[in-house]
Amino acid sequence: MKFPSLVKKQFCKTPVEVTIYGEGVTEDGAPLTVFECKNLYPSDSLYPSATLHGGSALCNMQSKAKTVYTKEQVQVSAVLLFDGDIAPDSPTLSGGFVILDGVKRNIVQGTKHRNPDGKVNFTELDVI
Description:
- It contains no helices and 8 strands.
- It is mainly beta.
């Protein structure tokens, strides 16, 4: 049985650069990067990679702002919806960051929404 896609590609029009960290750290103590999707610029140090994908990903973004009594006064958060599984090699989305409209935002929560047959229907990233 084929399940319908709940996030249609035709509605995903917002370009976003995504870096997702996995569980664990590298030998240097840095977060382990399991997925990167960003614009690539010509460089002598650019080597083929299993985690690096060229070009921005397209998503459906829903943003909201609320007043929080901190130094900033206004906290902007957003929900990014991607069709399918953006990081199929990673079973969990435990953190990372996105660059959205030139602003770096941290991933607070990542969810892979699954169909009853176990395949990922869409991916949701909550960012602040």
